TrEMBL record:
InterPro entries recorded: CO/AA/NH_transpt, EamA_dom, EmrE-like
Primary site of residence: membrane
Annotated signal sequence range: none
Protein name: EamA family transporter
Membrane topology: Multi-pass membrane protein
Intracellular or extracellular location(s): Cell membrane
PANTHER family: ACYL-MALONYL CONDENSING ENZYME-RELATED, BIOTIN TRANSPORTER
Domain spans labelled EamA: 3-127
Transmembrane segments: 5-23, 29-46, 58-75, 81-100, 112-129, 135-153, 173-197, 203-223, 235-254, 260-281
GO cellular component, one term: plasma membrane
Keywords per UniProt: Cell membrane, Membrane, Repeat, Transmembrane, Transmembrane helix, Transport
């Protein structure tokens, strides 16, 4: 749990740093490429290829491609459509996606999740009731794409880690995770990136270095390490702990003029949807026990 708490504090600043210094100023595909490449550099010196079987390497690379590569592509685009508090609030669905993915793996379907999803959409509308437009809803959907990728990566890494011996030092193989993300980031920038919108100030380069080496490099390693050491319920809770932490940072430092009443009401409805979902999950688990 200590790893998850530490990374939550670390990541709480990432949302605002991206929204204030990079979004709309630095090409998002280049930002993704830089973060992934710098994170890979942190762990490449420790890589011991022979410690993983061929299939395990491909699985770990695939998880990195989804949880980091594709997720970042969605994530950075969302800041062009939404404010930082909105991006934060809409990440609240990740635990629901984790549950849905578990259902899919075991061949189940729970219609109750449609009710909680509808409530969550209502909360999203309250946040922007005087300005809901196509761009807002597109941003909402883009964040959900990022949430789904992040959830899939966590569930997948937990399952992969269960196959690995406990004595295996995870830092000696985690570079495969970032190399998988590079497989997504490099062609994305080559095909869709804008070379005319590279960082132009020391602050922007500094933010990218911090996000790549610390937030991504150390952050994702420690988060996934912590994810396999707690139960699924604790992991779901920590996925949402980032939201209030990130909001406090953003509202206290960069967004002091935000409409706190509307933001709180909409966020409360979204939180109620999540709590209702978790109540249902616990109730169903108790009935099956």
């Amino acid at each position: 749990m200590g790893y998850l708490i530490g990374v939550t504090v670390l990541w709480a600043f990432s949302f605002s740093l991206i929204g204030v210094y990079l979004a709309g100023q630095v090409d998002s595909y280049f930002a993704v490429l830089m973060r992934v490449a710098l994170a890979a550099l942190v762990f490449l010196p420790f890589l011991r290829p022979r410690l993983l079987k061929g299939r395990q390497r491909w699985v770990l690379m695939g998880l990195g491609a989804v949880q980091l590569g594709v997720m970042y592509l969605f994530f950075y685009q969302s800041f062009l459509l939404l404010s930082v508090p909105e991006v934060l609030l809409f990440t609240i669905f990740t635990p629901i996606y984790i549950t849905l993915l578990d259902d899919a793996l075991f061949g189940r379907f729970t219609p109750f999740y449609l009710i909680t999803a509808t409530l969550a959409v209502l909360g999203a509308a309250v946040i922007r009731y005087d300005g809901v437009d196509g761009g807002f809803w597109m941003g909402f959907l883009v964040v959900q794409g990022a949430n789904l990728c992040f959830a899939l990566g966590q569930v997948g890494y937990r399952r992969l880690s269960a196959e690995l011996p406990e004595s295996l030092p995870r830092y000696s193989v985690f570079a495969w995770f970032y190399l998988g993300a590079l497989v997504v980031a490099v062609p994305a920038f080559a095909l869709l990136g804008n070379a005319a919108a590279l960082p132009s100030t020391d602050v922007q380069w500094g933010v990218l270095l911090w996000l790549g080496l610390i937030a991504s490099g150390l952050g994702y390693f420690l988060w996934n390490l912590g994810a396999v050491r707690v139960d699924a319920g604790a992991l779901a809770i920590m996925n949402n702990a980032l939201i209030p932490a990130g909001l406090v940072v953003n509202l206290a430092i960069w967004n002091r003029d935000a409409d706190l009443v509307r933001l709180g009401l909409g966020g409360g409805i979204i939180l109620a949807a999540l709590l209702l979902n978790e109540w249902w999950v616990r109730r169903r688990s108790a009935s099956l026990a």
